[in-house]
């Protein structure tokens, strides 16, 4: 009997410009560009935090005024995405040095280290590392 694996493959994030978004996510956050394929009237652009990750970001350039209104506010001001790391201080320091905007100071919680940052568009993210058991 075959076991079926289910996971999120892509999370779409609305951006204003493909190239600007690619530059930010790869240069500032250290993501890898997985695919950039032209399609009629758009591009299929995928970035990932790690090449072996099962979940990737699909950078979707806004098409029209309605979609443009969601750039930077895809979750109504709440933390939208959660970037898990195996070395919190390494990634926090590297991102800070590259100009990523952090909304607060890092803090230790019962589950590990966490800090909120905003991406290029103002979407809020958690950078976090789980505490070791």
UniProtKB/TrEMBL annotation:
It comes from the Bacteria. Residues 7-130 form the VOC domain. InterPro entries: Glyas_Bleomycin-R_OHBP_Dase, Glyas_Fos-R_dOase_dom, VOC_core. PANTHER family: GLYOXALASE/BLEOMYCIN RESISTANCE PROTEIN/DIOXYGENASE (PTHR36437), GLYOXALASE_BLEOMYCIN RESISTANCE PROTEIN_DIOXYGENASE (PTHR36437:SF2). This is VOC family protein. It comes from Tatumella terrea.
């Amino acid at each position: 009997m075959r076991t079926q694996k289910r996971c999120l493959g892509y999370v779409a994030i609305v951006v204003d410009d493909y190239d600007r978004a690619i530059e930010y996510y790869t240069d500032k956050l250290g993501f890898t560009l997985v695919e950039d394929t032209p399609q009629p009237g758009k591009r299929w652009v995928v970035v990932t935090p790690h090449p072996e990750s099962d979940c990737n970001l699909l950078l979707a350039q806004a098409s029209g005024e309605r979609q443009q209104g969601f750039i930077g506010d895809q979750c109504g001001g709440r933390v939208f995405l959660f970037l898990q790391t195996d070395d919190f201080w390494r990634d926090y320091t590297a991102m800070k040095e590259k100009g990523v905007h952090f909304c607060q100071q890092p803090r230790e919680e019962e589950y590990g280290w966490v800090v909120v940052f905003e991406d290029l568009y103002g979407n809020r993210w958690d950078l976090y590392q789980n505490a070791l058991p």
